[in-house]
Amino acid sequence: THEHNFLQCLYTHSHNSTSISTLVFTKTNSSYSSILQFSTQNLRFATNKTPKPLVIITPQEVSHIQTIIACSRNHGLQVRIRSGGHDFEGRSYVSEVPFVIIDLTYFREIKIDVENRSAWVQSGATMGEVYYKISRKSRNLGFPGGVCPTIGVGGHISGGGYGTVVRKFGLAADNVIDAQIIDVKGRLLDREAMGEDLFWAIRGGGGASFGVIISWKIKLVQVPSIVTVFNVPKTLEQNLTKLVHKWQYVASKIDENMYIGVILQRVNSKLNSKSTTVQALFQSLFLGGIEKLIPLMQEKFPELGLVREDCIEMSWIESVLNLYGFPKGESHEVLLNRTQASKDIFKVKSDFVKVPIPEIGLQGIWPMFYEDGAKDAFMYLFPYGGIMDSISESEIPFPHRYGNLYQILYSAHWHKVEKMKFNWIRKLYSYMEPFVSKSPRGAYINYRDLDIGVNNINGYTSYKQASVWGVKYFKNNFKRLAKVKTRVDPLNFFRNEQSIPSHFTKR
Length: 507
Ligand code: FDA
What we know:
Elements: H1 2-13, E1 24-26, H2 32-38, E2 55-57, H3 62-74, E3 78-82, E4 99-103, E5 110-113, E6 118-122, H4 127-137, E7 141-142, H5 153-158, H6 166-169, E8 176-182, E9 188-189, H7 191-194, H8 196-202, E10 212-219, E11 221-222, E12 227-235, H9 240-250, E13 258-268, E14 276-286, H10 290-300, E15 311-314, H11 316-324, E16 345-353, H12 359-365, E17 378-383, E18 406-414, H13 423-432, H14 463-474, H15 477-488
Parallel strand pairs: 2-4, 3-4
Antiparallel strand pairs: 1-2, 5-6, 6-10, 7-11, 8-9, 8-10, 12-14, 12-15, 13-14, 13-17, 16-18, 17-18
């Protein structure tokens, strides 16, 4: 069988290094399920029906990964590379064809160089671990990555990656200065050895198309000693429509030290506990103190009625905890907990907005939040602008720059797999069409959505077919990504439902 031959290959070829046998888990191994589930973030892909890997390997050395690649190629198995396991469509640990998982849980060293304001971080580390380690070295250094601390460095940076300081510092991938990757031939390459084309492609082109990324060298950014956070909820009864409408004109234009995101969801009404309402939570991080924030808000967004009492001053690392929703006073070490994010069953989609949505358009959204499918659902409006407007669309593969006012994340949740229905989120997505980016309707690879198009998983996918989803994620950069792919992995070994296609046509 595939599995038997693969394992034999693995054991024969790894005798020179630390024994790989303790790092290999087959279905008969008692730890198989717990290792598979450990970083499975979306429980939609943790059911009996979910296809399971033949083997999971948790390599500890580069040579282990080289051997896995060689043996998978020899024995016709696909590999899935998993860092933090947060892929919204489970692509790091699910495949319809026989496959093995390379789980990078042991590759999580973080080396901070305060003097040069840089760090080498391995793919299997979480962003929370990165933020924490930086904060132990300096109160004035930070890194612009995602909000959720358990996302993995490997997948997150490969797809762009952003959080509450994106308007000031850009994406995580904009702040990468070197990387190490193992390619299909098993070569360990740094930036110089891989060349600028491949180095370009892996910073935002999505993980899993070009090789196994071992580590990134990132630039640390300067944050002030004091930052200010506020969370201001407003409901339909408190003028939500007008506020969100105005927010669209403010959030991407205001001072780049200011982030104001909006989370829209149905909540229990305060006035009458039996009824529900729609709420917009205006959530903000200001890189500075209250004294500067209040006049700024009075000038640019007086309608929100922000007062001092809404604001809390803190250090940057405390703001990371606060904006993720940890209670005040939570120990910073919680960022080292690799499984704290609450796991559930969900489906997401994304959009980009270039022209403010008129009030009447917003008003059409609210009734949908009262529908059955909207229980626990939310929309997250994430402002762009600032430095994002001045980075060229082709600087890295992530193309959604100048002209985007904000991004929308739609997220539908269920408590039981049996309850799962995608019609609500798809209906909302189709309602939004006239209001969002067009030709192509943009999407964000890190908010992976297989609805927008997929490859033929068993074999060759033409560039044209893949373009259906590819230009939504990458616009014109998709061409260059396919060129790089054709050069570094012509036979398309590293592939999945949304991997970059190779132009090489021999099947
Ligand atoms: P995972 O391990 O699932 O990998 C994702 C993809 O990259 C897979 O295709 C995988 O094969 C590939 N890959 C992983 N490691 C690789 C490696 N070392 N080499 C090559 N390929 C590799 N995003 C954002 O920008 N801002 C945010 O605030 C958030 N917040 C957020 C919250 C929650 C709860 C979730 C579940 C997700 C997010 N995200 C996000 C999205 C997140 O950035 C995205 O899912 C990342 O791809 C996750 O990276 P992981 O390493 O955890 O994923």
